[in-house]
Amino acid sequence: MSQSDKFWDSKAEGYAKSPVSDQATYERKLKETQQYLSPEMQILEFGCGTGSTAVQHAPHVKHIDAIDISEQMLSIARSRAEQSCVKNITFSLGTLEDFSAASESQDAVLGLNVIHLIPDRQSVLKEVARILKPGGIFVSSTGCLGNSYLRFIKLLVPLGKRLGLMPDIFIISEAELAVEIKAAGFEIEHQWHHGMDDVDVFIIARKIS
């Protein structure tokens, strides 16, 4: 088990019990995403956490594969799906690369609150493009601290990791993220930000055919 796995396992129960910090924004993200979903779609969510978003989207698609590096998060996610009588989600342990989906097998891919936690974003974005069908949708919500005073949190990350108080956090600006998504083969259809210093960036992008 890696240090990141252990961190998220330790946070799973508290994370599941925490209320959504901005319910209106969360519901806006759900609504905008669901405008792109349809009953025949096969979708994948990486970094699914405790499964709350997957459960919300499940009635709108054929099937969801939801993956995460934390077994404790997945245990809560499976319980949530069962309690909601949702049967079209398969939860799996691992990373997007571990999952190894077939090329052009997914109608949509979701990466929510996870990209800023990944050291090699470009490889992940290329993998998302590989597994999406032409015209497929990539939905992301990302903490972009590059132009905020919060970028200095990077100075605290090594100590926070050693103490088990913080995960890896990688600093990127909203503009840089948009450039990287486009470079991976996408056109951005929606992009907006919110939260403290507008650092939380929501993007819906379509794979160029």
TrEMBL record:
Residues 43-136 form the Methyltransferase domain. Keywords: Methyltransferase, Transferase. It comes from the Bacteria. The keyword Transferase applies. This is Methyltransferase, UbiE/COQ5 family protein. GO terms for molecular function: methyltransferase activity. Coiled coil: none annotated. One of its GO terms (biological process) is methylation. Gene3D superfamilies: Vaccinia Virus protein VP39. It comes from Neptuniibacter caesariensis.
